[in-house]
TrEMBL record:
The name this protein goes by in its record: DUF1828 domain-containing protein
Domain DUF1829: 159-249
Coiled coil: none
The organism of origin for this protein: Staphylococcus shinii
InterPro entries to which the protein is assigned, alphabetical: DUF1828, DUF1829
Length: 258
């Protein structure tokens, strides 16, 4: 226990020594020992409000740097993530500033919450890398829901070979319209189109149909962040697979609603 207390004292001493303060016009800039994704020290700002209360904020730096990093926090999915983080740490967002209003004697907790919230929001930089595919999928699902495109998500279907495939979304057929097997692709490369085309060939004649129409295979592809090569388009045409560009929402609706 003594060793733990000693090490904790060392940690608190290090924390205290590595905070820096700078008086600005109307506010105090606090440089913390915590770093963001660019390895820069996180800065927060203390303002005294007209009513005497204390307000802590990041002065809009976090959202500005995410934008510079190429991350659109206005997408529905990322917006949900940001709001969830703000609620978790009792923070608010005003004019792109992340804010913690200090209540009574809660300065220490409010400052801690603000720093934790900023670090958590900076984690959205990961959505530009390893998690971006999941983000894209959620955005497409949200789009289909908002536009009231009815169907079933994440359906396991069997092919003639007996192999089972997961289709991202299936729109049921009607008396005059074929069933649509809808997959999403954040990066529609040749491997992805080949894989989806193989599944389509194996599945389409094995699908139950009351209108005697073969199912159609459609892929919604993220052409905003990743280009689609001519080789991929040629392979899709050859296999009878339709590619819908995410940048053309009207085109997607026209195909899915007709």
């Amino acid at each position: 226990m003594e060793i733990i207390e000693q090490k904790m004292d060392e940690y608190f001493k290090w924390i205290k020594q590595n905070y820096k303060y700078k008086q600005l016009d109307g506010s105090t800039e606090i440089t913390t020992p915590f770093r963001n994704h660019l390895n820069d020290f996180i800065r927060i700002y203390l303002d005294i409000l007209p009513n005497g209360n204390i307000r802590l904020s990041d002065d809009g730096l976090t959202m500005s740097e995410l934008e510079m990093y190429g991350i659109d926090v206005e997408t529905k999915t990322r917006n949900k993530l940001v709001n969830s983080i703000l609620n978790q740490f009792n923070l608010s967002l005003e004019n792109d500033e992340i804010i913690a209003d200090v209540k009574n004697d809660s300065f220490a907790q409010s400052k801690h919450n603000l720093i934790q919230g900023i670090l958590k929001v900076y984690d959205l930089t990961l959505t530009a890398k390893s998690n971006v595919s999941n983000i894209f999928y959620e955005e497409v699902y949200d789009f289909l829901f908002d536009e009231e495109i009815t169907g079933t998500a994440k359906v396991a279907v069997s092919g003639e070979s007996g192999i089972k495939y997961t289709i991202d979304f299936i729109l049921p057929g009607t008396k005059t319209k074929p069933e649509i097997l809808l997959n999403f692709a954040n990066n529609l490369d040749f491997n992805k189109i080949t894989s989806d085309a193989f599944a389509y060939r194996d599945v389409k004649h094995n699908r139950p149909s009351r209108n005697n129409l073969d199912s159609k295979m459609v892929i919604i592809a993220n052409d905003v962040d990743n280009s689609i090569s001519n080789r991929v388009k040629q392979a899709a045409d050859y296999e009878g697979v339709s590619i819908l560009n995410w940048s053309n929402k009207k085109g997607i609706l026209k195909t899915l609603q007709k």
